[in-house]
Each structure stands twice: as C-alpha cells, then as structure tokens.
Specification:
Subcellular location: Nucleus; Chromosome; Chromosome, Centromere
Shape: elongated
Pfam families: HEAT_SCC3-SA, SCD, STAG
Structural class: mainly alpha
Largest sheet: none
Radius of gyration: 47 Å
InterPro entries: ARM-like (IPR011989), ARM-type_fold (IPR016024), Cohesin_Scc3/SA (IPR039662), HEAT_SCC3-SA (IPR056396), SCD (IPR020839), STAG (IPR013721)
Number of helices: 53
Strand content: under 5%
Family: Belongs to the SCC3 family.
Distance between the termini: 75 Å
Subunit structure: Part of the cohesin complex which is composed of a heterodimer between a SMC1 protein (SMC1A or SMC1B) and SMC3, which are attached via their hinge domain, and RAD21 which link them at their heads, and one STAG protein.
Number of strands: 0
Length: 1146
C-alpha cells in the first residue's frame, strides 16, 4: 500500500457521544445509508490523476518533517500547501480529473483530507473498492504517528497558516464550482460526507479536528447553496404566479410548463441539499460541539453563527439557538468568545433580533454575568453584545441589567472600560455620574467614553456656555454643575495630554503623527474657546469659592484639609491676577477672625491657673489653623510673634501648657522668623532689623532647646525638627555670595546644644524600644513612626553635611551604621560619602572615633571578656563596612588612612594592662578592629606602620609583656605583613607570563632559599584570613618583622611622616590627577562580601604590578644597615608610581 510501518493504536478515549448520551460507533447509521445509496459498483479503475507539481525545497521548514514522513505525497495536498495557483484553477483541474474518472478523482480528494490530518497512511484504490469507511479509518488510525503531536492545523508558522486558509478555501470553492450539477450526482457528496463523519468519530485528535473543520466548512458552503436554491425557487414562484395571472389570450402555456418543471427541479435540489446538511449536522456537529478539545468546539459554534446569519429562515430557530446558549457556559475562554461573536452577528440586525425574543429571555442573565468574566476580552465582547441588544431590543434589558454594566467604566482594563463607556453613552451620561457613588474621579468615565463620544466631550464651547447660563430655577442645581465641571476638566486633560488615568494602560504612549496633529488641533481649539470664557467663569464662581474656603478653614482641623485650603488661597493670591484684591480682602478677613480669637484666648490662658478641655481644644484648633496658614502666607502684620513667645515661655517655665497648644505655637514662631528673614533678604536691611531678628532667633532656639527635655515626646520631636531647620537656614551658608550683609544673622550652636541634639538622636532614633514599638500598634502605624524617625535622622545629618555641627558629631550616627542598616542605611551611607568630600582626614578621625566609642562602651558594660562575644564581632563588621568607603583610590585616602592607623595604635596602647592580668592593655583588642582597614593600605605604608607599631610596643609595654603573644597584636601584625609574607607563594602560583627575563627563575629560587620561615604562630592564632598579596619587599631577603629590620626602621614620628611626605611629593610630580569617584558602587559591590574575597582581586593586580621582572626595573634593595630613606626609598616610590599607572591607566 506504500504506507510507513504502523504505530501502536491510540489510547485516546472515544469522544464522540451521541445526543442521547450513548457512545458513537465507528460507523453511523447515516454512513451505512450513504454506502447503500451510493453507486460504489459504478466506479471505474484508476486511469488518470492530476499532474504532479514539483514543490519548492524551501517552501516551508516546518513542513519538511511532515513531507518527509510521507513517501507517497498527495498531489492535491502539495498544490494547496505551496499555494502557487489560484484555488479556482486548482478545483477546476480536479473537476476535470473527476469527470474523466470519478474513482480516481474522489480518491485524490480523500487522500488530500487524510494527508491534511498529518497521517502517514494512504488510501489505495484496492482499499477504496473493497473496504468500508470504518475499516479504512481503523487501518489509518493504526498507521498514525502518535509520537508527534503536530499536524497541519496546529502548526503556527506562516506557511502552515496559509495552508489552513487554503484548506478551508478549497472546500468552499469545491462546493461553489459543483453547486449546479456535480453535488447532486449521489457520489461525490455522499462519499465525502461519509468519510468526514467517520473521521470525526475517531479517537485520534488530528482526525477529529481536521474532519470537523472540513465538515463545518462544507456545511457552510452548502448553506449558501441552499440559500441560492431557495432564492431561485422564490423567484421561480413569482414568475409562475405572474404568468398565470395573465389572461388566457396572453398566457404562454409552454412557459408555464417550463416554470413548473424548473420548480420541481429546484425542489428536488433543495431536498437533497437539506438531506446533506442534516447528515452533517447530526453526524458531526451534534457530537463535536461538546468535544473535549476546545478548538473543535469553537469551530462548531463559529460556523453555526454563520449558518444562522446566512440562512436564518432555516437555522434561526430555538432548536439551533439552544446550542449557542448552552455553550455560553463553556469553561474555555476561546469557546465563550466565539459564542459571543456569533450572537453579535445576529443581534446586529434588528430584524433577526426580533426573532430571538425567547432565546434572549432565556439566556439574558448569563450574557449579563459575562460582563465580569475572568477573561477581559470575553467581558469586552459581552458588553458589546449587550450594547447591540440595547440598540435593537431595548425593552429586554432592565435597569438592574444595565446597572451591572455601569461600574465597569472604572475598570483598570481600558478595552473593557471603553466598551462599558459605549454602552453607557447609548443609555445615559450625566445622570449616571451624578447618581452613582461608585467612583469619585470623572477621568475614568471620560476615558471610557472617549472612543465613542469624543465629539460630544470635546464640545467645550457648549459645555462652558451651559455652565454660564444654567440656573437652579431651570432644574440645573449645584450637583449638576459640579458633575459637569468635573467632566469638562477631565475631557480637556484627555484631549490635551492624551494620557490614560492612573492604572489604566501604559504610563507613556508613543503618539503617531496623526494623533500628535489631532492633539495640537485640540489644544488650539481649547485655547480659542476657553480664554474668553475664563474671566466669566471665575467671576461667577470666585465669591462662592472664597466663601467655601473660609468655611473649610473655620470648621475643619484636619492637617491635610487645612493645608489644601491654605495652598488654594496661596494660588489665588497672585498679584498678577485681576481679582487679586478680592482674594486678598477675603484672606485678610479670615486671618483677622483667627487672630482676634487667638489674642483673646492667649490672654485668658496666661491669666488663668486652669483651663478646661473645651478651652484647650479651642485654642489648639485656632493655633493650628494659624500655623498652617502662616506656612503659605506672611502673617507678620498681625504681630503674632509676641503672644506666641509669651505662651511658649510659659510652657517652658511651668510645664502647664498642653502639648496641643505648644506644638502649633512653636510652629508659628518658626514661620514668623522665616518670613522676616525672607523680607530682609530681599532688601538692604538696617543694622537694627538684623539685630532684632538675631535676638528672635537666639530666643527661639533657646526655648526649643528647653523643649528638648520636655516630658512629652511629640513636643521634643517638634522642637528637634524646628531647631534642625532653623540652624540649617541660619548656618554660615546664609552669608555667602551676594548675601554677605546677613553675616550678623549666622547662628552657631554651642557645645551644649550640639550635645543635646545628639542625645535626642540616641533616645528617639537609635533606640531599640522605639524601633520595635508596641505590640498593639498596627503595621501602618509602625511604618509611620519609622518615617518620622528617618526625618529626624535626616535633619541631624544635614546639619553635619552643611558644616553646622562639627564633623566629629557624626560619630554618634556612624557607629550605628551596621546595627540599623535596614532602617537608616541609605541615610547614613549618604552622610558618610558627603562627609568624606568635606575633609578626608577629619572624616577618617570620625570613623575611628565611632569605633573607639563602641569598644569603650563594650568594655564598660561587659568588661574585658566582652571582646569574645557577638557585640565585638559587630564592631569588626562595622569597621569592615567603613573600610569599603576608602575604595580603590588609595592615593586620595592614603594620608587619612595612615593617620587612622596611627591614632588607632595609640588608642590600643593608651590604657595599661590591669595589674596581674595576662590579657595585655585594656584597649588592645582594638587592633583587631584596626586590621579591617589594613587591606586598603599601600605596601610601603604597611611597612612603615609596622615599624611604628613596634616602636609603640617598645615604648608602652614592659619587657616581660613584649614577649607575650596576644592574639589581637599578632593579627594586626599579620595584616601589615600580608604583602611580604605571601609574596613568594603568590609569585610561584602566578599565571604564566608571555616573556621572562633571563635569570628571573634563578633569582626567585635564591629568594625562596634565603627567606626565613617567619613567625608561624601568626597563622595558627590569627582569626583573619591572610589576603593573597605580594610586594617587592620580598627582594630584601628578610621579613619586615625580623629584629634586624625593625632596628633599621626605628625612628621618630617626624621621621615617619617625613618619609610619607617624600613619597607623596614624588607621586604628585609624576602622577596625573585622578578624578574622585563616589564609593557608592564600591560599597554596594563589597558590602556583603567576605573580607578575603574582596581583597583577592586587588591582591592579584598588586602581585603582578609590584613584580620588578615585569616592570623591567633592576631595583637596588637596601642592604643591612642602610637607612630605608636612602636610594631604596626612591625605588619604593618608583615602583609605586608604576603600579598606579598600570592600575588607573591600563
């Protein structure tokens, strides 16, 4: 037979279930009827087939696998797949073949459908003659390749999508070409329908899917033929009636006979076509519309919608509509989508919709509920369907049904909201917006209606005139005006900006040239209409607006409400506006009322010994309103500063003034000072004015300083915030540039105030009890408290950055960097970076001071044993984080880093060891903390610092103590020796170099042989992993820690700094300036890395850069007894310069 070896039988369950619930057999009764009625004995032997066309080799890559699997390709299949010829000519060629040999032609068509299923098998003439369809399908099923789930209808590449379109077109054109004679030959259609019905009952998905599509397309084509026959029949009937109505003398009997004969022929054709359609519907559709494959179900429903639209007389009945109604409940999105699209085609016609009243009443609830479908695109189609029902069957939708659609205009999905907007526009607009309490924003409503009602929404001229002419007597009240104003403003914004509301669609939309042109036209149109009308609108509503603002201020005490009212007044009080005088008058009246009330209440409070709750509430509310207005408006003419100062002084002296009154009082004084500063800054101030203002500033700062010790924390926080802001405003920055005349106003906080500010920070920001909060506090409250504490910390840090407080005050902040990193890490990190830019040396001393304070606190709280606990490890971790801020720019940080080490060494030996203690000096563990900074040192600096360490040990330790092997001292020594100790090993494992100098290997062997083993105890006792670094110091043949070398490097502190300055001068002469970079990136990269890892990459660079064999320098290593500051030091400097050039300028 020419087919490939058959695979195992499919295990897919039988999915063809009859309408009454019974299972379908492999062959139906209809199939048997067709076989009996078909003239199978009239078939003639195969004599001719279509001429084969050579396919292109690269026609479709995806088709190669299917084509290669068939050794006997179907010619018709290849023609359709290649899509080189018009389908009409392809069908005409096939019809020629069919007319000459029916069996060969039908066999070609049968194999086309088999091949379109992706099947390996081929129906041979012998099989076609001797076997029933069920037997042929069974044999093809056994030969089907179940290993691959691909078949032409499921492939999505472009060639196969073209084939799918060609497949459907072939069936349609075939029926169209055969509609007048061949489809009635009782052979072609009977055989084709029998085959497709049998294949649609198959357990193989490819057979069912392909045959169902072919059968449904065949049915659709037959429906069109049936419609054509029906039209011809009706036309024939009219001709017959017209001819028969003529008189006997004019009546043509032969014409009547011909018309009668034609009518009988048309009736037979109609009956045969109806039989064919009935066979397809009962044999295929009834079983497959509920197939387990959603694509098959969707095909059935989609084609049924086409039948109903094309031939409504036969198919638009409840017996067919029920299938679409049932499928509205399908679980698959695609099937529900096809149902709604099919119904839209029916309801789009008022005539067809009128015939669906029973169906609509039965399934209306389901269609309404689908508005809220979980799939937005299904919801869109459901709303479009309801919109069509509203247009053509308005009485079918109740108010309750419509109310289910209205809220969707506020949906976040724009397509869904736009569909609901169109529905709403058809029904109502302004009444809905007024009556609904679903949303407060008209922007979402306007955006929903923009696609369908843009011309109405853009009628700004009509809308504004409606606002100007409307009156309550005409039924146009405040509610309608407010709604119209909101819609008007939203439509203006939509037209001029083109941005969807928040949450609906992308934030930025790229406009096309046409959209940009339309937007420009809308802006021009809006300007032309609105500019002349704005004064009239403002004149009508200004007095009402000012009255409402006054009412809001006098009635409300909420912070946000009062701030919004004050801001609105500020915007209106622009001297450039023509109505400024009216607004200024209204503002003055409002402030007069509040000031008079405050003056009366403050006098009563100062004289009374007790105030009840109502009096306290009234005064606090009045002060709160005044303080918020004072923020946006200059209330200096009302002279509120003096009574506020008396009130605050009373609170400080007696503590009897409630906090509700104290906080707004401080705020009023603060804003009063700022308004006076703004006034003197804009003119040439007199000395008297400056002195008066300076006195106010000093007095207010003194009062706020006293409030820092208040019993109420909210008063303390307000005093801290106001002090921070005021100290920043009156800092030395005030008198810079053209404001030099304000030098007299510069206020510098004394030591006591600085100490109190730092103490407040410790109690309210870096306090674990404050940070955790109470268990009863909700998460939102905890977030708000954290936000407040972050503001407090930011205010203090700004004082440091802008040189209001000494840089050393930052130690109280820096020492909490690691412990509070989660809550304040970003603020402290930014402060560290800014402080480094101010003064690197002082910054380094501040870092050291932070670490020293932490260690001192630890020793005071836990004693000497505290260095073995977790708290000491946290101090080391903080030091590691600090070291990352020194970054790779070692030249910039060199002097500060060396000074930090020296000061740290002094601190470590500052306190002598307790008598009888074996632990060494009290602060000696600080050397472990200091070792975290050692990897950032240059190799020469390590050598000199090591010498300085030994000198300090000699000076601070007694002879018996010098022989002690304390871990902290050993670890710090090892961190300073790391380049020398590991250099030899690192040289041996270095990557192979492309070129070696002669004798370099021998030289290394001599160095290895001559090098001493060193202090092996360091490696055993140290807790810090030695970085893999090396330097040219190994060439000396002695360890830098050896007694001989230590003796060489003994010298005074001035000698040490002289050597350091010598190297700095040479670097400045030969090295170009390197631009400083922020350490943020370095810190982010190395913050959470293990220490050994962050050093390794630097060590690998230094290892090669310090190797003289690569640099090509024959340095002279100082001999024993030679001073290191001689020529050997010059070699050190040159080597360092070479290293830096290679590092920064690779």
């Amino acid at each position: 037979m020419g087919s490939l070896p058959a695979s195992g039988a499919s295990d897919v369950p039988d999915l063809s279930i009859s309408e009454d619930g019974g299972g379908a057999d492999s062959g139906s009764d209809f199939e048997d009827t067709l076989w009996k009625s078909g003239k199978r004995d009239a078939r003639t032997p195969l004599s001719r087939t279509l001429a084969a066309k050579r396919p292109r080799k690269d026609a479709s890559r995806d088709g190669e696998s299917l084509a290669e699997r068939n050794p006997e390709p179907s010619n018709l299949f290849e023609v359709v797949r290649l899509a080189k010829s018009a389908m009409e000519s392809v069908v005409d060629d096939w019809l020629e073949s069919y007319k000459q040999n029916k069996e060969a032609g039908i066999l070609e068509l049968v194999n086309f459908f088999i091949r379109s299923c992706g099947c390996k098998g081929v129906v041979t003439p012998e099989m076609f003659r001797k076997q029933q369809n069920s037997e042929i399908i069974q044999q093809l099923t056994e030969q089907f390749d179940e290993d691959s789930a691909e078949y032409p209808l499921v492939l999505t590449t472009r060639p196969w999508r073209k084939f799918q379109a060609g497949f459907c077109e072939l069936v349609t054109v075939l029926v169209q070409r055969c509609q007048y004679s061949i489809i009635y030959d009782e052979y072609l259609m009977d055989t084709l329908i029998s085959l497709l019905t049998g294949l649609s009952d198959s357990q193989v998905r490819a057979f069912r899917h392909t045959s169902t599509l072919a059968a449904m397309k065949l049915m659709t084509a037959l429906v069109r033929v049936a419609l054509s026959v029906s039209l011809h029949k009706d036309n024939n009937q009219r001709q017959y009636e017209a001819e028969r109505s003529k008189g006997p003398s004019r009546r043509a009997m032969d014409k009547l006979e011909a018309l009668l004969e034609k009518r009988r022929e048309l009736q037979e054709q109609q009956k045969e076509i109806e039989n064919m359609m009935n066979a397809i519907f009962k044999g295929v559709f009834v079983h497959r519309y509920r197939d387990v494959v959603p694509e098959i179900r969707a095909i059935c429903i989609e084609e049924m919608g086409n039948w109903m639209q094309s031939y409504s007389a036969s198919f638009l009945t409840d017996s067919y509509l029920k299938y679409i109604g049932w499928t509205l409940h399908d679980k698959q999105r695609e099937v529900r989508f096809k149902c709604l699209k099919a119904l839209q085609g029916l309801y789009r016609s008022r005539e067809l919709a009128a015939r669906m009243e029973l169906f609509t009443s039965r399934f209306k609830d389901r269609m309404v509920s689908m508005v809220l479908d979980k799939e937005p695109n299904v919801g869109v189609e459901a709303i479009k369907l309801l919109t069509l029902i509203l247009q053509n069957m308005e009485e079918m939708l109740t108010d309750e049904d419509c109310e289910a659609v209205y809220p969707v205009v506020y949906a976040s999905n724009r397509a869904l909201a736009a569909a609901a907007g169109e529905f709403l526009y058809k029904k109502l607009l302004l009444a809905f917006f007024i009556q609904s309490e679903l949303h407060e924003h008209a922007a979402y409503l306007v955006d929903s209606l923009w696609d369908c009602a843009a011309p109405l929404l853009k009628d700004w001229d009509g809308l504004t005139h409606l606002l100007l002419e409307g009156s309550p007597e005409e039924g146009w009240g405040d509610q309608q005006e407010n709604a119209l104003i909101e819609i008007l403003v939203s439509s203006m914004r939509q037209a001029t900006e083109g941005k969807p509301p928040v949450g609906r669609g992308p934030g930025k939309k790229v406009l096309s040239a046409r959209e940009r042109k339309a937007q420009e036209d809308d802006r021009e149109k809006l300007t032309r209409y609105l500019i002349p009308l704005l004064p009239q609108l403002l004149a009508k509503y200004l007095e009402q607006l000012l009255a409402q603002l006054r009412e809001v201020v006098e009635k409300h005490t909420g912070q946000e409400v009062l701030e919004a009212a004050a801001q609105a007044l500020y915007v209106l009080c622009n001297p450039e506006f023509t109505f400024y005088s009216r607004v200024d008058l209204a503002r003055s009246r409002l402030v007069d009322t509040l000031a008079d009330k405050f003056q009366q209440e403050v006098s009563e409070l100062l004289q009374a010994s007790y105030l009840d709750e109502d009096e306290v509430y009234s005064m606090a509310a009045t002060l709160k309103r005044i303080s918020i207005l004072h923020n946006a408006h200059d209330l200096t003419p009302w002279q509120l500063s003096e009574p506020c100062s008396l009130l605050l002084q009373r609170a400080v002296d007696t503590g009897e003034v409630p906090k509700q009154v104290v906080i707004p009082t401080m705020t009023c004084l603060h804003f009063g000072i700022l308004w006076e500063l703004a006034r003197v800054s804009g003119t040439v101030p007199a000395q008297k004015e400056l002195l008066a203002l300076k006195h106010k500033v000093a007095s207010f700062c003194s009062l706020c300083q006293s409030c820092l010790t208040d019993v109420d924390s909210s008063v303390q926080e307000q005093a801290f915030v106001l002090l921070s802001d005021l100290l920043l405003v009156f800092s030395p920055q005030l008198a810079r540039g053209e404001q030099a005349a304000l030098e007299l106003l510069v206020y510098r906080p004394d030591v006591t105030l600085q100490s109190q500010l730092a103490g407040f920070l410790m109690d309210h920001v870096f306090n674990h009890a404050e940070l955790v909060g109470s268990d009863d506090e909700d998460s939102e409250g905890k977030i708000e408290r954290l936000h407040q504490r972050r503001n407090l910390l930011s205010g203090f840090c700004k004082l440091i950055i802008y040189n209001v407080l000494e840089l050393s005050a930052a130690s109280d902040v820096f020492k909490h960097y690691a412990k509070f990193y989660k809550d304040y890490g970003d603020i402290i990190k930014e402060t560290l970076s800014r402080a480094r830019q101010i003064d690197r040396d002082e910054w380094a001393r501040t870092l050291l001071l932070s670490l020293q304070q932490l260690l001192t606190e630890l020793l005071l709280q836990q004693g000497p044993d505290g260095v073995f606990g977790e708290d000491f490890r946290e101090i080391r971790d903080l030091a590691r984080r600090f070291s990352l801020f020194f970054g790779l720019h070692q030249l910039h940080n060199r002097q500060a880093l060396v000074a930090l080490h020296k000061a740290g060494i002094k601190f470590a030996f500052q306190e002598p060891a307790p008598s009888g203690s074996e632990l060494g000096p009290l602060n000696l563990p600080f050397l472990e903390v200091l070792s975290e900074f050692s990897p950032r040192l240059l190799s020469p600096d390590k050598k000199l610092l090591l010498s300085y360490l030994e000198q300090t040990c000699q000076a601070r330790l007694s002879p018996p103590q010098r022989g002690k092997r304390w871990n902290s001292l050993l670890m710090y020594r090892r961190s300073l020796r790391s380049l020398d100790d590991m250099g030899s090993a690192a040289s041996r494992i270095a990557a192979p170099r492309p070129r070696r100098r002669p004798g370099s290997a021998a030289k290394r062997r001599r160095l290895d042989d001559s090098s001493e083993p060193g202090d092996s105890s360091l490696q055993l006792s140290s807790r810090l992993e030695t970085p893999m670094l090396t330097s040219t110091a190994l060439k000396s043949g002695r360890q830098p820690g050896s007694p001989a070398q230590l003796q060489e490097e003994e010298g005074s502190e001035s000698d040490f700094m002289q050597r350091l300055s010598l190297m700095d001068e040479e670097e400045e002469e030969e090295e170009p300036v390197i631009q400083e970079e922020s350490s943020d990136e370095e810190d982010a990269q190395g913050l959470d890395m293990p220490l050994s890892r962050s050093h390794s990459s630097q060590g690998e660079q230094l290892r090669d850069l310090f190797d003289s064999t690569i640099l090509g320098i024959e340095e002279r290593v100082p001999s024993v007894g030679e001073h290191p500051g001689d020529s050997g030091l010059t070699v050190w400097a040159r080597l360092l310069l070479h290293m830096l050039r290679g590092w920064f300028y690779p």
